[in-house]
């Protein structure tokens, strides 16, 4: 709760005003029973001839004061309600901002540790639980103690007998609240956990809806969702059952108190009639006043009790939020970073690099050594799980090498600030990701100052200018969430264009041409050579035909380099490469690919 407390502390002045308004409202409310009692006593003590003129004036005076108090209470309640709503809204905004900022700084291993569904739940549902609790606490923790203390004093002042009635019942209410706390608290924690699971299933079902339908697995997914939903429903029913038992029990205890108050009133009045105590004609109004004070005391005690019952739930939510806020990202800036201007050319070198994922006990990459220079293309090939993506994920420091180092122009990448390092890299991931907005917005994602001419040039190189120019709004054409209004190939080309607009020292294409047809692929690569002739290019590829002319090909096998060199050299010296080529191409196809590449190169490649 400490991190959330620090957020609350930033807005202490709003909280102070709320405290003053609630306290004032409560004190005024405690005055109302006295005025009601006075009016009742005036009416009750009226003679046979009815109210006298003075009694009417006195009653109107007391009634006027009471109405003024009621109006003041209304204004204070409205004011503190508005301020309280504003305060918890700001609190929710600040908590969401802090959580989002923290997640943005996460390394990929941090994100994997929590899971996307859990992070979404913490950002929304858990934050909402904290907001609701803060709204309740701001009133209950101020109002209830005042009602309890001053109400008890006033009740004692009226007659100790009234107070004894309340004191007898309070322990019974306390027992009910403790039992509720013991049985309901663990269930609130379980509800949050089940909500995480349901969010995961829902997200999985929505993102994978095409695959689910293609394999006719709707019933299977529905079964899993229904199972999780049923389990959560069962827990909610248990909580509701407990609360449905508690509510009438508390109601019975309240009625016992009110019955006891009236009974004490009759006992006191009876003692007056038989002369045990002095006659006091104000006893009727006194009993009504005692009833109202007892009501305030009981309600305040009940509100405090329910607040403590709800505390485990919000405590669980606050802990889940703090778990995110307290995470120390594994990938951080160095204490004394190097100047990014030291990266002048873009020479990339892997020196005895070994990498192991934190949740694995064996290395994914072992003893990787190679150098990539500006003006060259380094292709990386290998079977699934051989470590291709792991190599390129070390370049922008999505992960850090466990042993050895990766250098840019002779400097360890860990010695640069993350922002400075990533400014020098144009990264296109396996799955093309576009953001909701326009094509222009997405292209400027890496270079906010990019001119329209630069954007069109990048689109031409990425072979995307053709279809973008045909769109009604061109660069200002809308992109739906996730780029769903574009085909897979179009999304890949737009993602590539976004990296090109950045004009970095190093380009990284992680199997980023997989959705392109063969000719478009060759045209794009040919145009890319001219556009990025001074940059260092990394290409992870599945199709051997598209990397035949790479300056060097890195062949991976089980995390190790099985071979490195040009296509012709590897065909002679690397068995793993020979097997990959044999599985994809025959000699005639290889020659045909070379001829097509040469023809497109002469055309200039840009379309």
Secondary structure blueprint with pairings:
Elements: H1 2-9, H2 12-29, H3 32-44, H4 53-104, H5 108-114, H6 116-158, H7 160-207, H8 209-214, H9 218-273, H10 283-325, E1 348-355, E2 365-372, E3 377-382, H11 388-393, E4 403-408, E5 411-412, H12 418-423, E6 425-428, E7 437-438, H13 439-443, H14 452-461, H15 465-470, E8 478-479, H16 488-502, E9 506-510, H17 518-531, E10 536-540, E11 552-557, E12 560-565, H18 567-573, H19 575-584, H20 587-603
Parallel strand pairs: 3-10, 3-11, 6-9, 9-10
Antiparallel strand pairs: 1-2, 1-4, 4-5, 7-8, 11-12
What does this structure look like?
The structure is a single chain. The model is unreliable at 272-279 (pLDDT under 50). The longest helix has 56 residues, at 218-273. The chain has 20 helices and twelve strands. Strand 11 (552-557) and strand 12 (560-565) form a beta hairpin. The chain folds into three domains: 2-325, ABC transporter type 1, transmembrane domain (ABC transporter transmembrane region fold, Up-down Bundle), CATH 1.20.1560; 340-424 and 509-603, Rossmann fold (3-Layer(aba) Sandwich), CATH 3.40.50.300; 433-503, P-loop containing nucleotide triphosphate hydrolases (Rossmann fold, 3-Layer(aba) Sandwich). With 607 residues, it is of the alpha/beta class.
């Amino acid at each position: 709760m400490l991190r959330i407390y620090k957020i609350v502390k930033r807005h202490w002045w709003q909280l102070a005003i709320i405290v003053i308004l609630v306290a004032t409202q409560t004190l005024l409310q405690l005055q109302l029973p006295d005025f009601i009692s006075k009016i009742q006593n005036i009416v009750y003590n009226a003679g046979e001839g009815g109210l006298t003129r003075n009694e009417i004036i006195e009653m109107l005076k007391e009634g006027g004061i009471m109405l003024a108090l009621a109006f003041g209470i209304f204004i204070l309640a409205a004011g503190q309600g508005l301020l309280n709503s504003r305060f918890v809204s700001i609190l929710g905004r600040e908590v969401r901002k802090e959580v989002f900022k923290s997640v943005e700084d996460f390394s990929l291993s941090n994100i994997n540790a929590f899971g996307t569904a859990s992070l979404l739940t913490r950002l929304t549902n858990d934050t909402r639980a904290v907001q609701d609790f803060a709204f309740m606490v701001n009133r209950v923790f101020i109002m209830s103690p005042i009602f309890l203390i001053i109400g008890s004093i006033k009740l004692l002042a009226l007659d100790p007998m009234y107070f004894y009635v309340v004191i007898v019942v309070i322990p019974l209410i306390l027992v009910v609240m403790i039992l509720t706390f013991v049985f309901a608290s663990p269930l609130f924690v379980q509800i949050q956990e089940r909500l995480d699971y349901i969010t995961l299933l829902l997200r999985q079902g929505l993102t994978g809806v095409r695959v689910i339908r293609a394999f006719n697995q709707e019933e299977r997914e529905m079964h899993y969702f229904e199972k999780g939903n049923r389990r959560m429903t069962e827990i909610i029913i248990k909580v509701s059952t407990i609360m449905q038992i508690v509510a009438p029990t508390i109601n019975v205890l309240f009625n016992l108190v009110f019955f006891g108050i009236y009974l004490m009133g009759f006992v006191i009045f009876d003692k007056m009639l038989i002369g045990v105590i002095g006659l006091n004609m104000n006893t009727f109004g006194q009993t009504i006043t005692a009833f109202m004070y007892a009501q305030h005391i009981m309600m305040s005690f009940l509100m405090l009790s329910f607040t403590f019952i709800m505390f485990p739930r919000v405590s669980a939510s606050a802990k889940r939020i703090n778990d995110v806020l307290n995470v120390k990202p594994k990938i951080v800036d160095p204490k004394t970073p190097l100047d990014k201007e030291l990266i002048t050319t873009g020479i990339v070198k892997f020196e005895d690099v070994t990498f192991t994922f934190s949740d694995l006990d064996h290395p994914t990459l072992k003893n990787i050594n190679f150098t990539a220079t500006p003006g060259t293309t380094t292709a990386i090939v290998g079977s699934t799980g051989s470590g291709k993506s792991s190599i390129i994920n070390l370049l922008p420091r999505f992960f850090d090498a466990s042993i050895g180092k990766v250098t840019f122009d002779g400097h360890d990448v860990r010695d640069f600030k993350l922002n400075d390092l990533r400014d020098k890299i144009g990264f296109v991931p396996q799955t093309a990701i576009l953001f909701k907005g326009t094509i222009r917005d997405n292209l400027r994602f890496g270079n906010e100052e990019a001119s329209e001419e630069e954007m069109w040039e990048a689109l031409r190189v990425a072979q995307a200018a053709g279809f973008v120019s045909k769109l009604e709004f061109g660069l200002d054409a809308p992109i739906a969430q996730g780029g769903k209004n574009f085909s897979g190939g179009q999304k890949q080309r737009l993602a590539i264009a976004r990296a090109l607009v950045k004009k970095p020292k190093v380009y990284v294409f992680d199997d980023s041409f997989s959705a392109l047809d063969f000719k478009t692929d060759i045209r794009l690569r040919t145009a890319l050579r001219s556009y990025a002739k001074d940059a260092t290019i990394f290409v992870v590829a599945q199709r051997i035909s598209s990397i035949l002319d790479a300056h060097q090909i890195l062949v991976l096998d089980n995390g190790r380099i099985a071979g490195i060199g040009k296509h012709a050299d590897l065909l002679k010296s690397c068995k793993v490469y020979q097997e990959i080529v044999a599985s994809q191409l025959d000699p005639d196809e290889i020659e045909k690919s070379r001829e097509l590449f040469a023809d497109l190169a002469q055309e200039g490649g840009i379309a």
